[in-house]
UniProtKB/TrEMBL annotation:
Enzyme class: transferase
Catalytic activity: L-threonyl-[protein] + ATP = O-phospho-L-threonyl-[protein] + ADP + H(+); L-seryl-[protein] + ATP = O-phospho-L-seryl-[protein] + ADP + H(+)
Keyword line: ATP-binding, Kinase, Manganese, Nucleotide-binding, Serine/threonine-protein kinase, Transferase
Protein name, UniProt field: non-specific serine/threonine protein kinase
Domain NAF residue range list: 85-109
EC number: 2.7.11.1
Gene3D superfamilies tied to this protein: Kinase associated domain 1, KA1 (3.30.310.80), Transferase(Phosphotransferase) domain 1 (1.10.510.10)
Length: 195
């Protein structure tokens, strides 16, 4: 949560992604409250409120439950790893899911005609170099660039016919000497994205 570093599957709707972003906001003052969550349109879709029964529990009952689960082997421990940040790795299942022929996302999302909202390519260059090259190419084209390790968000300065063009870029390590780069339109016009 402190970094708000997460990604959503491509078949998540934009409203679901916005809600998740509000839930995982690292700033507790901006994070969505339970009351706001219950008022969110995406959340209310098909929601049936839970009815709770009133239970009379004493402090002794609570202590007994904690004593039963007091085994330290069940505790969650956070580990922090130091060292260079590496790009996300992809296994065979991840690669298969990116294949158009085997991509199941069409079962979960509405297709946007024939024009794709994403493109991928591979490179034998290191991930840091790929990100730097994309940044150097995007800045003269009028994009505001925000980088976070091997992910990058590009936002166009000019307002197009559907707002500012926004592109999310991520570099995945497929093999020790091979990276896959994914560019996904996250806002604006799809035709502008392809230009």
């Amino acid at each position: 949560i402190s970094k708000a570093d997460f990604s959503c599957p491509p078949w998540f709707s934009s409203n679901a992604k916005k809600l998740i972003k509000r839930i995982l906001d690292p700033n507790p003052l901006k994070r969505i409250t339970i009351a706001e969550l219950h008022q969110n349109e995406w959340f209310k879709k098909g929601y049936i409120p839970t009815r709770f029964e009133q239970v009379d529990a004493t402090l002794d009952d609570v202590d007994a439950i904690f004593d039963e689960s007091g085994d330290s082997r069940n505790l969650v421990v956070e580990r922090r790893e130091e060292g260079p940040v590496l790009p996300a790795t992809m296994n065979a299942f991840d690669l298969i899911s990116t294949s158009q022929g085997l991509n199941l996302s069409s079962l979960f999302e509405k297709q946007m005609g024939l024009v794709k909202r994403e493109t991928r390519f591979t490179s034998k260059r290191p991930a840091n170099e790929i990100i730097s090259q994309i940044e150097r190419a995007a800045m003269p084209l009028g994009f505001d660039v925000k980088k976070n390790n091997h992910k990058m968000k590009l936002r166009g300065e000019k307002t197009g016919r559907k707002g500012h063009l926004a592109v999310t870029t991520e570099v995945f390590q497929v093999a020790p000497s091979l990276c896959m780069v994914e560019l996904r339109k996250s806002g604006g016009d799809t035709l502008e994205f392809h230009k």
